[in-house]
Amino acid sequence: MTATTVHEPTHREALWELEDAFERGDLITIFGRCTVEYDGRAASSLGLGRRLLLLKPDGTALVHTDEKQKPVNWQPPGSEHHAAVRDGRLRVRSVRTSPDETLDVHFETVEQLSAMAVSGRRDLSVTGSEADLRNALLDRPAVIESGFEPLATERPTDAGPIDLFGRDTDGRPVVVELKRRRVGPSAASQLQRYVAAIEREDGDDAAVRGILVAPSVTDRARRLLAEHGLEFVAVEPPSSTGDAGGSTTLDTELSQTDAVDDSAHDPAGDATGDDDGEPARTLSADEESH
Amino acid sequence: MTATTVHEPTHREALWELEDAFERGDLITIFGRCTVEYDGRAASSLGLGRRLLLLKPDGTALVHTDEKQKPVNWQPPGSEHHAAVRDGRLRVRSVRTSPDETLDVHFETVEQLSAMAVSGRRDLSVTGSEADLRNALLDRPAVIESGFEPLATERPTDAGPIDLFGRDTDGRPVVVELKRRRVGPSAASQLQRYVAAIEREDGDDAAVRGILVAPSVTDRARRLLAEHGLEFVAVEPPSSTGDAGGSTTLDTELSQTDAVDDSAHDPAGDATGDDDGEPARTLSADEESH
DNA sequence: CGTGCCAGGTGCCTT
DNA sequence: AAGGCACTTGGCACG
Fold it and tell me: What are the Polar residues biased-composition ranges (chains A, B) (predicted)?
């Protein structure tokens, strides 16, 4: 049996089971009436109630109620779990250092205690990240702008690494900041910092352009972009469902190593057209008043 | 009994128990060998392995392994849980809309299924937040600067709400941005946006000062502050280390004013605020509400 | 280990 | 509902 459970144990029985489970490196769940106190980076206290305590062999401790996704209290991995019986009651204490933090769970009653041997693949691959978006744009740089030439990704600057750096058809340096979701003012500020850093470092007389690539942008961010002469290109992240008007959709089905050249495969009906103002994809922030 | 558990049920038995537990609004844990697939804002797939599935009556679904604090897969509150037996195996599906997201857990074997009736106080009071820091500073504005006069908190601007707004002894407007942790460049940008907003809105000829209040600042952020003529004041956030008692003591340490640029308005000495000659006072940011 | 930044961030609150 | 932001953010990658 890979899962052992005791129902309504005495506090001392629970303690024995707990220590055995710690020994085996099991994943442990304890359900019962308890109080919770946390003290460390902040401090909190939680009155008596039925909750689920989840203890992981890596030192994680999670206190869950019947609501919300986040635990009401927790302790990060690397903490040390200790169990003891004080005043006839089970106390589970999870401690870590730097910063010093302590989580105490005092059980009034233990209704159930389970110990499970957990194993299995933990390799989870998530697609749809910003890195995926970047790769898609490297495959099709024209999505950003016709003739845009990528030169570097994660180019380091004084202000931090630039998502995508390149040149436009006029040879002007272009800083591209990628966001996979609708962006607020902070992203505009971030782009502005990068542009300023490149202007300082390269010291070129050629003005540095800054382009924010995201599905959409909030009003404040749009104004902030305009203030700094930055641009915005609407691009839906890869593998996203639905299509918002005026934005380009990237499909990353090119994961096959064979580079199927589908450059002619342009789904949008709008002309790939002349380089005079084509507002469908690239819009200058100071002209698009909405 | 408030917790019912079945060990190694058949998939069909597990389904019955599950549906009963859904009906009762129980907190449910399922432990077994399973695969997990998620598709929505992103997409992921997880191969066969022993994991713990936690289903909450509010629609939350969490898949936990033996490591890490965050679940390896999840579904936020408001989702709908569905259970079914397909090909003789239990499948738990959690779905939500806007955005459309689906989480599928296919069980090869169900080793344990528990249903628990959870109730209890959920009122958690956390001290040490940014709001606490702000209250402490309202009590002792001299910590920011001798003679600083707070005028408003959360003052709205075009760039968003300002944490703390006031005037210095010369009557110049001061924008204060509070952070409870060591800050990076984004906080400096945020402060800069607020200062610019106030300068636009008030249109005063009096230059607007910006002060970042935080425990410490990274190098890049420091340089960024200097660039924009912004200032930094080191203040430790209220912490409750050393006392596990009921009332949280917030001892706000007084640190030296650290004017970043040389055009410092108030260099050296008197900003240490020793003019009020008080021993470090304990500031209660939170009335004993329970 | 600190620094910086993305995240399927989550949660809270205001407009 | 959308926007803006704090968070015991968590987690990762890099110097």
Answer: 238-258
